[in-house]
Write a structure and sequence with these properties.
The chain is α/β, with parallel strands linked by helices. Helices cover 49% and strands 15% of the residues. It has a single domain, classed as Rossmann fold (3-Layer(aba) Sandwich), CATH 3.40.50.
């Protein structure tokens, strides 16, 4: 039986890393990409795993990673666009650099990687694209205009691509994690603020006070890895896959209630 291959962006930590290990355990070939592969000390020791550099904001690195993967394994069956980070803060305080970096990474980079893999999918007339979105692609929290804007974009991009992918025998899917134990609050998080903008500070304090308890029950990244595996292998035309108990509950509520009810629910949770 032919061994299938997945290419994963953002494999150095969190969801990407857990997914690389999970697929390898399932007998897949894994192209585990990251910006600094020279720092990797675990994945590169696993059988059938190629660790290589890919920065989604560097098109040459995208092309090189794909070429290396094809040379090593012969084909790419699944592309997981996972690389990304969250920028949070009052839009009024955001620099032009912060705005562009958020969209360049989470949206333009995702498009560039996808566009580079599509010809291979089209030639083979098969392939599965899986984009990591978030419950934050279906709902919002205060000060997340940049992050949520990118994830809403990912949702629309992926859904629209289904029409194109049907013509070439492929599928485009979205995985929507809830609260996950990753470094989202660390290096994958960009917070900006201007304390002179006093009107926003009380709301910001309430948001941070609520975020701690919300993350206490965060799921392990392997929960997302298992959902990615389901999306990659179930053979269905299903588009959206919530990952985590909280994500499942939210998606059910999102389908039941109108925008005002959802927004008021967020406000109630934050105490505003």
């Amino acid at each position: 039986m032919e061994i299938k291959t997945i290419l994963i962006t953002g494999s150095s930590t969190g969801i990407g890393r857990a997914t690389a290990k999970y697929f390898q355990e399932k007998g897949w070939n894994v192209i585990a990409t990251m910006r600094t592969p020279e720092k990797e000390e675990e994945l590169d020791k696993l059988e059938n795993v190629l660790v290589t550099r890919l920065d989604v904001t560097d098109r040459d690195s995208i092309t090189s990673a794909i070429d290396q993967g094809l040379e090593r394994f012969g084909s790419i069956d699944v592309l997981l666009n996972n690389a990304g980070y969250g920028a949070y803060g009052p839009l009024e305080a955001a620099s032009s650099e912060s705005i562009r970096r958020q969209f360049d990474t989470n949206v333009i980079g995702l498009l560039d990687v996808t566009q580079a893999v599509i010809p291979h999918f089209r030639e083979r007339k098969e392939g599965v694209l899986i984009n990591v979105s978030s419950i934050g692609g279906r709902m919002t929290f205060p000060f997340g205009s940049l992050y949520h804007g990118t994830k809403f974009a990912v949702e629309g991009i992926t859904e629209a691509l289904n029409y194109e992918f049907e013509q070439i025998g492929c599928k485009a899917k979205i995985v929507e994690p809830g609260a996950i134990k990753t470094d989202f609050g660390g290096r994958s998080f960009d917070f900006f603020n201007d304390e002179e903008l006093v009107e926003y500070q009380e709301l910001m304090q309430k948001l941070w006070a609520a975020m701690g308890p919300m993350m206490e029950n965060a799921a392990d990244p392997v929960v997302v890895a298992k959902v990615v595996y389901e999306a990659a292998t179930d053979g269905t035309s299903k588009i959206r896959y919530p990952a985590g108990d909280d994500a499942v509950i939210f998606m059910e509520n999102r389908s039941k209630y109108d925008d005002e009810t959802i927004i008021n629910g967020v406000k109630s949770q934050l105490g505003i």
